[in-house]
Amino acid sequence: MKIAMVGSGYVGLVSGACFADFGHEVVCIDKDQSKIDRLCEGIMPIYEPGLAALVENNTAAGRLSFTTDLAAGIAGAQAVFIAVGTPSRRGDGHADLSFVHAVAREVGEKLANDAVVVTKSTVPVGTGDEVERIIAETGCTHRVSVVSNPEFLREGAAIGDFKRPDRIVIGAEDEFGREVMREVYRPLFLNESPILFVSRRSAELIKYAANAFLATKITFINEMADLCEKVGANVQDISRGIGMDNRIGPKFLHAGPGYGGSCFPKDTLALLKTAEDYDSPVRIVEAVVKTNDTRKRAMGRKVIEALGGVDAARGKKVALLGLTFKPNTDDMRDSPAIAIAQALADAGVDVAGYDPEGMEQAAPLMPEVRMCASAYEAIDGADAVVIVTEWDAFRALDFARVKALANAPVLVDLRNIYKPDDMRAAGFTYVSVGRG
């Protein structure tokens, strides 16, 4: 089957490469000529483990290609995926659907055969209806079924998530759409991956509901962490104790500096705006968004407290280890490190930072941070070392070297990757999250 993937960003590129690896003929389309040129040269626009090799192998096999020509790219395609960005709209927080609508119009104008048009982008309820209307408005005479097929990819583990999904959600309104989508995902169906066929609007809402629920779990355990510090309990024990309940589960119950990334902040906000438009407020999600926003800067205050308070912190140096919102990605969107660094800079603290993959993306977002070539360069002369992102490279720091380089052996572990007793035995003043 020929598949066209319009949009060669994170979702489009990962999805297109995986579909090609299943044996489909895939064309990834993007208006950015420089991006397409780099992809043709094997240069990835994002960091995702295993993606470069997957793209290289399938390009060499002739199953994956790249173009800026939408008409040529969709010619003969039985499934045309829309995988362009839907960022939060400036001013009101709604999802910006201008790219989705523009693609729908161009596809309608240039489609030369019957096809299923699939929204892979994360879109609010009712977007599929609008895509269908736009395509019809172009005067397209071919049979078109508009389908919603939300993605559930975790950055840093996207290829595994695509090939071994918990479920595949397909929102279709007719048998033509369902039939084509069955063929698209037939390789996964043979592996017994569950496929859930629902209405188009249900599929659109499933994506937002899933991300809002996961964001709620993160925010809940972060608030429990604060309570643990007040009462002298251990949040990791709390997480294990409630996570062993099958009704709750252990995932997303790790206390930390708050969630970030390309999905949770944007999608929770978009869900709030959708709920407002339909006069059906989601109060829990409102609280989650507000609590997460305030937590990031609160982690900056936690570091300042570890330095001895506001007056003592001025003029001191802090090393931030990990700048991306999570490990195994170079994504800086809504990373807690941004707010933490700003809070420290506002308090007169000199901030040095290091990240294994996110330095280039972080630099323009964090002008107050001096970027370093290694973790130990950042630590040199620091009065406190702060672990913001739990990269594997930070799980086995050379403690003797850290103590020799730092002005003071203060370690603020915002991801709880070390054991308090071990750190104190090693001679550190150790601060963690939720372990009173």
From TrEMBL:
Matching InterPro entries: 6-PGluconate_DH-like_C_sf (IPR008927), NAD(P)-bd_dom_sf (IPR036291), UDP-Glc/GDP-Man (IPR017476), UDP-Glc/GDP-Man_DH_C (IPR014027), UDP-Glc/GDP-Man_DH_C_sf (IPR036220), UDP-Glc/GDP-Man_DH_dimer (IPR014026), UDP-Glc/GDP-Man_DH_N (IPR001732), UDPglc_DH_bac (IPR028357)
Family matches, as Gene3D superfamilies: Cytochrome c1, transmembrane anchor, C-terminal, NAD(P)-binding Rossmann-like Domain
Top-rank taxon, per record: Bacteria
SUPFAM superfamilies, per the entry: 6-phosphogluconate dehydrogenase C-terminal domain-like, NAD(P)-binding Rossmann-fold domains, UDP-glucose/GDP-mannose dehydrogenase C-terminal domain
EC numbers for this chain: 1.1.1.22
Catalytic activity of the protein: UDP-alpha-D-glucose + 2 NAD(+) + H2O = UDP-alpha-D-glucuronate + 2 NADH + 3 H(+)
Residue ranges of domain UDP-glucose/GDP-mannose dehydrogenase C-terminal in the record: 319-420
GO molecular function: oxidoreductase activity
Pathway in which the depicted protein is active: Nucleotide-sugar biosynthesis; UDP-alpha-D-glucuronate biosynthesis; UDP-alpha-D-glucuronate from UDP-alpha-D-glucose: step 1/1
Pfam families: UDPG_MGDP_dh (PF00984), UDPG_MGDP_dh_C (PF03720), UDPG_MGDP_dh_N (PF03721)
UniProt KW keywords: NAD, Oxidoreductase
Similarity comment text for this entry: Belongs to the UDP-glucose/GDP-mannose dehydrogenase family.
The name this protein goes by in its record: UDP-glucose 6-dehydrogenase
Species in which this protein is naturally found: Pelagerythrobacter marensis
Upper lineage: Bacteria, Pseudomonadati, Pseudomonadota, Alphaproteobacteria, Sphingomonadales
